[in-house]
Amino acid sequence: MADVDITLKVQRFDPSADTEPYWQKYTVKTQPGMTVLDALFEVLNHQDGTLAFRFCCRAGVCGSCAMMIAGKVRLACETQVATLLDKREIAISPLPHQKVVKDLAVDYDLFFSRLKSVKPYLVGKEPYPEKEYIQMPKERVPINEPIDCIMCGSCTSSCTMAWLDPGYLGPAALLKSYRFLVDTRDSIPDERLDLIESESGVYRCHTQFNCVESCPKKLNPTEAIQRQKIKLIKRKLFGRKRKA
Questions:
Q1: 244 pLDDT band (50/70/90 cuts)?
Q2: How far apart are the first and last CA of the chain?
Q3: 242 — pLDDT class (breaks 50, 70, 90)
Q4: Quick one: pLDDT at residue 241?
């Protein structure tokens, strides 16, 4: 990629000073391998030190830099500027339908409260082993995909049902619920199903697949939600499982 000038059109908003969001443009000279996060740092370090955005690992692992880039929810650290050079200018805004802390940084309180409500941790079976629970490779298969969720919030921010119903658990929390529901080492499957069996749980999903399209790790929260619906139906038909 030859060095060329690009224009970043960044949505700015400071709730303590502004009444509504506005757009501000910055010109940045590209470099080989430059990501959108690199470009934002170029602005922050050399043009406008007031620009606010989140980042951490810079390797697509932490999910901190999820934002709207050129009309699509992406991770800024993984998005190569070279792939967007066909745009006259690159529009960058915070995750949609989230409370803005400042500029590109949003408030994750509601997102994490949804996650916490599904008990996103293993409740092991008793008696507890001295070292670890043994899990065979074939038993590990169902959690191979959902365990890769980096909790960036892209899926929930892209879900229209989550926009309309703040009480809806959302795809990220329901994917996390599924991750432990199908873990053979977990001891509370019925309790986990109880937590998601409601109009604010799995039944709020309208299978629009926005969450699948926006996930930077190519996960499928929609499929996980449908599999949980199947488990709930089977429980209705055949009764609750007995505790091990």
A1: very low
A2: 59
A3: low
A4: 64
d(CA 122, CA 110): 22
Amino acid (1-letter code) at residue 5: D
3-state SS of the chain is CCCCEEEEEEEECCCCCCCCCEEEEEEEECCCCCEHHHHHHHHHHHCCCCCCCCCCCCCCCCCCCEEEECCEEEECCCCEHHHHCCCCCEEEECCCCCCEEECCEECCHHHHHHHHCCCCCCCECCCCCCCCCCCCHHHHHHHCCHHHCCCCCHHHHHCHHHHHCCCCCHHHHHHHHHHHHCCCCECCHHHHHHHHCCCCCHHHCCCCCHHHHHCCCCCCHHHHHHHHHHHHHHHHHHCCCCCC
Query: pTM of the prediction?
Result: 0.91
Does position 4 have pLDDT exceeding 90, yes or no? Answer: no
Residue 183 phi/psi, 5-degree rounding, is -80, 120
**Is the predicted pLDDT of residue 2 greater than 80, yes or no?**
no
Q: Give the type of residue at 76.
A: A
